[in-house]
Amino acid sequence: MRIVRNLVGLLGFLLLWEVVVRAGLVNQNDLPPPTVVFARLGELLGDTEFVRDVIASVLAWAIALVISIAIAVPAGLLLGSIGWLRDATRVVVEFLRPIPSVALIPLVLILIGGGPESKIALAVYAAVWPILFNTIYALSEMDPLLTETARTYGTPKSRILTSVALPHAAPFVFTGIRMSAAISLILVISTEFLAGAKLGIGQFILEASSGENRMDLVLAGTVVAGVLGFLVNEGLERLGRRLFRWSTADEGAAA
């Protein structure tokens, strides 16, 4: 039923869009109707260069997400379990966290250059925070009896982190990963667009909009980006429901 409702809503939106444009309420050159956009999209999916752009964006997104997890989960476990370390780094973290990643594009281009490393670095910067704070939040909500029991049996602190704290925090960490997956995809494509990457969906949209102002191509590329974001979020949400059926954690608590 959920899928049916989603499809009905999507079809209704597309129909309204088509009617508005065909009725002349909007200039077709500025906003092509969905029939034109999807026809162009069908052509693009058979274009090797466009497929290469999509692969470049997806690959950069996947690398950024893996790096973010590798950084944020261990850091979150340390900050969440060592009070003095969390207090010592609080000012630095709270200073860095609100900085928009796109504002760092000029700095990253100077330090790293305009290759794929720049979009990966910016995506990592943006994606680290949801995972980090969800991990810290999970540890703050953990029942102290769990760790005290482990200490009573002589379990080393490092073992407590991996065998007690991490399993408890896993649903919260996964929620952070799902949030970061969407954020990192947005940053990858935005950086490609704003910094003029050699490959990627953002680069394709930039060329289509700055050359002959082909809004049909711009919207077709945007649709691909939206579909990728939907598939990533939907896939991770379904995986989370399967992995953590036992969890009653409020997924929005640490957001």
Automatic annotation (TrEMBL):
<feature type="transmembrane region" description="Helical">
    <location>
        <begin position="91"/>
        <end position="114"/>
    </location>
</feature>
<keyword id="KW-1003">Cell membrane</keyword>
<keyword id="KW-1133">Transmembrane helix</keyword>
<comment type="similarity">
    <text>Belongs to the binding-protein-dependent transport system permease family.</text>
</comment>
<dbReference type="InterPro" id="IPR000515">
    <property type="entry name" value="MetI-like"/>
</dbReference>
<feature type="transmembrane region" description="Helical">
    <location>
        <begin position="217"/>
        <end position="236"/>
    </location>
</feature>
<feature type="transmembrane region" description="Helical">
    <location>
        <begin position="54"/>
        <end position="79"/>
    </location>
</feature>
<dbReference type="Pfam" id="PF00528">
    <property type="entry name" value="BPD_transp_1"/>
</dbReference>
<feature type="transmembrane region" description="Helical">
    <location>
        <begin position="120"/>
        <end position="139"/>
    </location>
</feature>
<protein>
    <submittedName>
        <fullName>NitT/TauT family transport system permease protein</fullName>
    </submittedName>
</protein>
<dbReference type="InterPro" id="IPR035906">
    <property type="entry name" value="MetI-like_sf"/>
</dbReference>
<keyword id="KW-0472">Membrane</keyword>
<dbReference type="GO" id="GO:0005886">
    <property type="term" value="C:plasma membrane"/>
</dbReference>
<feature type="domain" description="ABC transmembrane type-1">
    <location>
        <begin position="54"/>
        <end position="236"/>
    </location>
</feature>
<keyword id="KW-0812">Transmembrane</keyword>
<keyword id="KW-0813">Transport</keyword>
<dbReference type="GO" id="GO:0055085">
    <property type="term" value="P:transmembrane transport"/>
</dbReference>
